[in-house]
Amino acid sequence: MNASFPSSGTVVRLADLGDAAERARIDRFVLAHPHSTPFHRPAWFVSVAQATGNRADALVQERQGEIVALLPLNAIRSPIFGNVLASSGFAVGGGLLAIDGLADPALMFAEAQRLAGRYKCPTIELRGGSLPEEGGEGWSFKHGAHGNFARVLEADDEAQLKAIPRKQRAEVRKALGNDLAVEVGRSERDRAAHYRVFAESYRNLGTPVFPRRLLDSVLDGFGEDADILTVWYQGAPVAGVLSVYHGGAVMPYWGGGTHGARALRANDRMYYALMNHARARGCTHFDFGRSKADSGAWHFKRNWGFEPELLTYASWTAPGGKVREADPTSAKLAMQIRVWQKLPLPVANLLGPLIARGIG
Fold it and tell me: What does the alpha-carbon distance between residue 192 and residue 196 come to, in Å, rounded to a whole number?
């Protein structure tokens, strides 16, 4: 899998992810790059592979012994959705991370195509980063179907509340008046409470829930750069979110609420509390993550005063390969979603992880 180019001193190779020193070297490159995301870190793509039984790889491009480009990859296999080589799996970001002027992206994309063939993955998905040139053989692009929502955090709790648009601010004030308690931690109590809420939320949305070991693996992989915030009512968890911290930003990633959370405004309490918690631990930005254009989540985030940055994703399908369909918002999957929403929660929690580990 190595490809050498003596004229430029450039080498593209697969990293040895079993070597702790190699993982640490990759992590240093990611943390130093201004456009990196949590999904470029081995703490993400190695952890999700370990938890789901899929495969993790990292293509690195080196120039005179120094990393100048990184492409994290997860080979996701599913008898339902098909196989995909994703950068990165179970993520809304990732893709090629390169140093302009030193890296040659074309070499990385060509190597990824060879790797996809080796793993019998007919599709490659790049969820951000530097993209191939449009018109490149086999590559297709999706422009503006999703947007990312991020903004700066304010100087204190009161300023943060005032920065929320009036109608949403009123909802937060109502939440603050309810008998809700907020806890932040990484203990078994935090994990169990969060997954209980998370699983119910996913069933209600009609989406197979991820296995708990996936969430635990990411939490353990990130260490102090991840935590869980839970909202409690009368001794029971009603809303919770697992967040990761990267580059001065907090990203609430896996979250949700119970059926009763809406009347309590527990999700409103949760996000406002997370903004203040993130600032207290030194964050300067709140990254609300990606949402599909004109979806409920899209409008919810705009109600909080966030404006979308439209995204472009790229995918490659091997000649003669079938285009993969795993978008839970697609019309093709609409009927399956409606059926899933009607499942008893214990059944959904039993079957969901078996299916979701192949969604990627």
Answer: 6
For CA atoms 267, 270, 276, 279, give the dihedral sign.
Answer: negative
Q: Compute the distance between CA of residue 271 and CA of residue 253 in angstroms, rounded to an integer.
A: 11
What is the rounded CA–CA span in Å between residue 112 and residue 290? 25
Look-up of token digits 């993982």: 23
* pLDDT per position as a tens digit, 39-49: 999 999 999 99
Q: How far apart are CA 360 and CA 98, in angstroms?
A: 23
> Is the distance from CB of 276 to CB of 161 less than 8 angstroms?
no
Count CA within 13 A, CB hemisphere, residue 133.
Answer: 8
With H, G, I as helix, E, B as strand and everything else as coil, classify residue 185. Answer: strand
Q: Write the burial class of residue 234 (CB in 10 Å: 0-12 exposed, 13-18 middle, 19+ buried).
A: exposed
Size (the chain), residues? 360
Give first-to-last CA distance, the chain, whole Å: 24
What torsion, rounded to 10 degrees, do the Cα atoms 103, 25, 91, 52 define? 130
- Rounded Cα distance, 59 and 62, in Å: 10
Distance CA 125, CA 338 (A): 27
Q: Which candidate, 321, 324, 326, places its Cα nearest to that of 336?
A: 326
Question: What are 323-337's pLDDT values in tens digits?
Answer: 766 565 555 655 566
